[in-house]
Amino acid sequence: MKGKSLSRLGLLHLWVVYLVWSSTYLAFKVGVSNGFAPFWMGATRFIPAALLLLLYARWQGFEIRLGGAEAGRLALSGAMLWLGGNGLILVATQYVPSGYVALMIATTPIWAALLEGLLERRRPPRLLVAGLSVGLAGIGLLNAPQLSEGAPDHLLAFLLLILSPLMWASGTLYTQRKSPHLRPEVVSGYQQLFAGLGFLLLSWTLGEDWGAPNPIGWAANLYLIVFGSLVAYTSYILAVRLLPLSLVTTYAYVNPVIALLLGWLLLKEPVGLWTLAGSALVLVGVGLVFKSQSKTPSPSA
Q1: Which of 43, 90, 88 is nearest to 205 (CA)?
Q2: Angle at 119 between CA 116 and CA 123, to 5 degrees
Q3: Separation of alpha carbons 296 and 300, rounded Å
Q4: How far is 97 from 92, CA to CA, in rounded Å?
Q5: What is the pLDDT of residues 194-246, one digit of tens each?
Q6: Average pLDDT over every residue of 93-112
Q7: Which of 38, 121, 222, 297 is the 20 to 30 Å CA partner of 96?
């Protein structure tokens, strides 16, 4: 374990996860601010990314054929993870800063731990309760100024960004329990493919304008395809193999901080006292959740 924790290659891949996954929130904002409707952006990102992953898996000789039950499970988990988790982010990003979005999504581990405890019908540890309480207090501080003014756009974004991490956490838990015995690249490829088709159907149903994105919007989406869906995903898998999981999961603390800085530096998004106080509490809450999980043996291990 000590050798793995000192792996330079593993640390390099972890830095890729830090930087790229943090910057995806910026790319979301740039895309929807330059002509992309949310669901059309999701369709044009996930379908190409999925096809590239599945072509790579085929080239490597991995099994990619699906049975009916496997296809249903991957379609459901893909819808929860990407269509629900990521699609709601894209809608919310139209109305609020990218750094705020990243901080709200940083609560995902809190919701995942809470849902896991409910599913397994075990009494939550005190640290988990403390983490949930502190994280919720942080969400309250982040949203206090706008919600006190009754801004409808911010209220909609707030509700979507509560539901999004719940969807992602639900999809993650479902994938852990019901995932087919296939390579991770194949599972992720099909999840993104089914989600991408869902994005396409929703975009067509809602009558989104497919010809509106300008070159900057397309560049942001290309960045998400190449770096967000392919490069960072591969680096995450390799980092998990080369480093202790407790180190790899620190991306949950690092990504929102970097995203906040990127939004402030590149998009001039405001960072006030409420934002700083709320973000600090959210990150402390996530830290307490991780600590409680490290002390509780997982029944699925």
Answers
A1: 43
A2: 75
A3: 12
A4: 9
A5: 999 999 999 999 999 998 899 999 999 999 999 988 888 778 877 877 776 66
A6: 84
A7: 222
179: left (phi over 0), alpha (psi -120 to 50) or beta: beta
Residue partners of 126: CB distance under 8 A and separation at least 6: 292
CB 27 within 8 A of CB 173: no
The most confident of the ranges 37-41, 107-111, 168-172, 243-247 is: 37-41
Cα dist. 228→143, 170, 171, 175, 236 in Å? 28, 21, 19, 20, 11
- Angle of the 215-223 helix axis to the 8-33 helix axis, nearest 10: 150
DSSP 301: -
65, pLDDT greater than 50: yes
Q: How far apart are CA 187 and CA 67, in angstroms?
A: 13
- Count how many Cα atoms sit within 13 Å of the Cα of residue 1 in the half-sphere of its side chain: 4
What is the rounded (10 degree) CA torsion for 226, 228, 229, 235? 100
Nearest CA to 41 among 86, 108, 99? 86
Note whether 221 and 24 are within 8 A (CB). Answer: no
- Domain ranges for the chain: 2-294
Cα–Cα distances in angstroms (integers) from residue 168 to residues 81, 105, 125, 162, 186, in the given order: 5, 9, 22, 11, 19
Rounded Cα distance between 190 and 50, Å, is 7
Nearest to 279 by CA among 253, 246, 251: 253
Distance CA 220, CA 54 (A): 23
